[in-house]
Amino acid sequence: MIEIKNLSKNYGSFRAIRDISFNINDGEIVGFLGANGAGKSTTLKILTGYLTPTSGEIFINNLDITKHSHNIKKLIGYLPESNPLYSEMNVFDLLKFTANIRDIKDSDFNEALNNVVSECGLEGVLHKQVSECSKGYKQRIGLACAMIHNPKILILDEPVTGLDPNQIIEIRELIKKLGKKKLVLMSSHILQEIEATVDRIIIIDQGEIVADGSTKKLINKYKGNVQLKLEIKGSNKDAIKIMEDKIEHIKIKSIKTTKTGNIVNIEYVQKNDPREEIFQFIIKSKWSLIEMNPQSDNLEDIFRKLTKSKK
């Protein structure tokens, strides 16, 4: 479990993190979102003991990070954004070196090695030089290094940056599998990836927490009006404009005439769904409805709303 209370971090007069608080329970996969400079990496570095907070409290499994930093580091596996691997070493030697740093040796090392090689799918590259491995495999190797001591908590900073779509899917599935056994906190700029991987999202903006909840919860809370696209045949602009007077709670944003008919963009409030009334109006008008496509806010829209106002 991670518990953060009123955490702040200052660099001189600059406040990188501003009095943030949140809890993460065991068994959760949590996405930590924010634009560049929002405070994501600073928060993760404080949680892993690489930076000291200016003020506030952090408890990892009920241990105070200011008093039990060494013990807490044993509980955490950390994959930083830079993924610092020794490219001149082969994968086996790198994992052995990492294990030795944590005093994992002999039979304990063999068991730990077998576990991370299996979980991270490194069987085919174990005796390859790190520099010869693909970007996707390098991320797997970084994860294996973070997991060699079987930590209860995994903190991953941008784990899919620079990967191709197939590699992203591979790492996503691995993180989801690990999340069944461990608490996972991950940051990413790829919103679709966060949405597909995590159970819960925390959004930070200019050092402050601006949202916390599941994707569904955040969309329900912050969603705006629905944009409805219609394609209608057999109609004309003047007749279409009458629809705005006949049907409550809709606003016609635009009408574009094409060779086959009219493209109509309508806006309405989510709770006042007018689609059935629009359909009946079109039928009574003896027009042909080719398309009716509602588009409500997604995670990217929510993220932009919550992080652009202060920029």
Give the topology:
Blueprint lengths: L1 E10 L2 E11 L4 E5 L6 H8 L7 E6 L2 E2 L4 H7 E4 L11 H11 L4 H15 L14 H13 L5 E5 L7 H14 L4 E5 L3 H7 L2 E6 L2 E6 L1 H8 L3 E8 L3 H10 L3 E8 L4 E7 L6 H10 L3 E8 L3 H9 L4
Parallel strand pairs: 3-8, 3-9, 6-7, 7-8
Antiparallel strand pairs: 1-2, 1-4, 4-5, 9-10, 11-13, 11-14, 12-13
Superfamily at the CATH H level of the largest domain? P-loop containing nucleotide triphosphate hydrolases
Number of domains: 2
| Basic shape | elongated
H/E element sequence: EEEHEEHEHHHEHEHEEHEHEEHEH
Please give the number of β-strands: 14
C-alpha-based Rg, rounded: 25 Å
Secondary-structure class = alpha/beta
Cross-sheet strand order for the largest sheet: 6-7-8-3-9-10
What percent of the residues sit in helical stretches (DSSP H or I)?
A: 25-40%
Strand content: 25-35%
Q: Quickly give the CATH architecture of the largest domain.
A: 3-Layer(aba) Sandwich
Number of helices in the DSSP assignment: 11
What is the CATH topology of the largest domain? Rossmann fold
Question: Which CATH top level class of the largest domain fits?
Answer: Alpha Beta
Low-confidence stretches: none
> What is the average per-residue confidence, as pLDDT, rounded to a whole number?
91
